[in-house]
Input
Amino acid sequence: MAVPHDPTVLPTELPVPQDDGGARHLTGLQLPALALDATEGSHVDLSKLAGRAVVYIYPRTGVPRQPSPEGWDAIPGARGCTPQSCSFRDHFAELKRLGVAHLYGLSTQDTGFQREAAERLKLPFAVLSDVELKLARAIKLPTFSIAGMTLLKRMALVIDDGKITRVFYPVFPPDKNAEEVIAWLKAN
Output
């Protein structure tokens, strides 16, 4: 049985994900027209967003005092969804100052679950649901499976007018992902 944990804290001995090439095809890709449900009740089509967007992608948000799936911490890159979200939350104003018009989280969890997590974590941006894996299949996002779930591997995308400009993959440690994106935005 998995041990309950605090999802806001990263263990020190997590396995580091290696670049498996699963995201190499994404840079320069024009996103397809697909509406994704958002936690604030709208539908977001990333291909139609004007200006610069950042979308951080994560496997699943943990719930305090509930165990992760068996073997979760042994999967490179799986652990750290809540710290990644909190990092983007904490850097939200700076991302906006750097020209990010749209910031979203994205996972395969359903909107109801994401809404609870977004409220609990006080996220000032929406989280998008790809629960049916429509976007994941359309652009061949890297995934992994555990406990009967197909989950997205952690990454971040910079999207300009519907086209992927920069891919951060693999992401580690997840709580530093927003800072990595900010450093790139400042240089570009």
